Amino acid sequence: MLRIAVPNKGSLSGPAAEMLHEAGYQQRRESKELRIVDPENEVEFFYLRPRDIAIYVSSGRLDIGITGRDLLIDSGADAEEILPLGFARSTFRFAAKPGTANGIEDLKGKTVATSYEGIVAGHLADSGVDASVVHLDGAVETAIELGVAEVIADVVETGTSLRNAGLEVFGEPIMKSEAIVVRRTGADAEDPKVQQFLRRLQGVLVARTYVMMDYDCRVEQLEKAVALTPGLESPTVSPLHNEGWVAVRAMVPAKEAQRIMDDLYAIGARAILTTAIHACRL
Ligand SMILES: Nc1ncnc2c1ncn2[C@@H]1O[C@H](COP(=O)(O)OP(=O)(O)OP(=O)(O)O)[C@@H](O)[C@H]1O
Ligand SMILES: O=P(O)(O)OC[C@H]1O[C@H](OP(=O)(O)OP(=O)(O)O)[C@H](O)[C@@H]1O
Ligand SMILES: [Mg+2]
């Protein structure tokens, strides 16, 4: 049975459970459940603090886990990213009151408050900057106002939390993060159960980012049309009862669907439809 760590709280937990549900796995019914077995899929899910997941996985007791890239790096655990999942996207940045600092070199001798001490200490050391790091559990934006630090390093998504605290980012982003699947470094990459789990999640990612497009076009326009909708492998082309016309079917990126429909129409394609993809195995 595959043993999988899933975030039990915070920004990662809702979207992770939703993705697993879309991939056909049973999920817990209430937020207090710590562990469930999905016998049909031969999977056991452990609901753990997102920060602890890479540590459990690196111990080898759990096969894989879903966590944030920033949390993996911060933990220093012996685990590696095997699949990015496209949700909980954020950047990790330094911020301070305007005029405090312009770049990392200005942090010399200053105190930085953060919940991600591992990332920050590593980044300062790599940059050869000698600054102190204070660990706080959360709401670090307030640390400057309350005099605990001159600078913070934190997760930024929309920037609203920083703006509300009168702070501004400075310097280069320290890292970009999103939810990821992790496994123990060097674990068997060919494990068929792990491969099947990853294929299911990849299927959800494809179903979320692509739509199916169908249209009819004149045979003379087929090459131009196919150039607009090359599909993943190659589009399906079927004859129509009306001679000289064909029906074409191809997957296209959902974000580009409207533009592609306009372009197809402009070259004479008609009856252009898009439909959602509910599930997919590439
Ligand atoms: N506002 C946000 N937007 C996108 N991702 C976020 C946001 N806040 C945190 N994350 C991501 O969520 C993960 C942290 O999850 P964690 O549960 O530890 O913190 P949280 O979501 O801030 O929850 P809480 O602080 O309430 O416990 C990290 O990968 C981080 O990048
Ligand atoms: O750029 P924004 O869209 O404002 O998002 C970023 C904020 O979201 C998270 O905080 P959370 O609400 O989880 O509180 P925390 O600081 O206690 O973790 C993160 O720590 C930032 O403070
Ligand atoms: Mg938080």
From TrEMBL:
One Pfam family, please name it.
HisG
The cross-references to NCBIfam families, in alphabetical order and at most eight, read:
hisG, HisG_C-term
Q: Which GO terms describe its molecular function?
A: ATP phosphoribosyltransferase activity
Compartment annotation:
Cytoplasm
The Histidine biosynthesis HisG C-terminal domain, residue ranges: 207-278
InterPro entries, alphabetically? Answer: ATP-PRT_HisG_long (IPR020621), ATP_PRibTrfase_cat (IPR013820), ATP_PRibTrfase_HisG (IPR001348), HisG_C (IPR013115), N-reg_PII-like_a/b (IPR011322), N-reg_PII/ATP_PRibTrfase_C (IPR015867)
Could you list this entry's UniProt keywords, alphabetically sorted.
Answer: Amino-acid biosynthesis, ATP-binding, Cytoplasm, Glycosyltransferase, Histidine biosynthesis, Magnesium, Metal-binding, Nucleotide-binding, Transferase
Q: Which gene encodes it?
A: hisG
Q: Which reaction does it catalyse?
A: 1-(5-phospho-beta-D-ribosyl)-ATP + diphosphate = 5-phospho-alpha-D-ribose 1-diphosphate + ATP
Q: What Enzyme Commission number(s) apply to this enzyme?
A: 2.4.2.17
Q: What does this protein do?
A: Catalyzes the condensation of ATP and 5-phosphoribose 1-diphosphate to form N'-(5'-phosphoribosyl)-ATP (PR-ATP). Has a crucial role in the pathway because the rate of histidine biosynthesis seems to be controlled primarily by regulation of HisG enzymatic activity.
> Known CDD domains for this protein?
PBP2_HisGL1 (cd13591)
Species lineage = Bacteria, Bacillati, Actinomycetota, Actinomycetes, Kitasatosporales
Full protein name? ATP phosphoribosyltransferase
> Carries keyword Oxidoreductase?
no
User: What's this protein's family per the entry?
Assistant: Belongs to the ATP phosphoribosyltransferase family. Long subfamily.
The lineage's top-level taxon is Bacteria
Cofactors demanded by this protein: Mg(2+)
Pathway noted in the entry: Amino-acid biosynthesis; L-histidine biosynthesis; L-histidine from 5-phospho-alpha-D-ribose 1-diphosphate: step 1/9
**Documented activity regulation:** Feedback inhibited by histidine.
Locate the ATP phosphoribosyltransferase catalytic domain: which residues? 49-203
Q: Which organism is it from?
A: Streptomyces musisoli
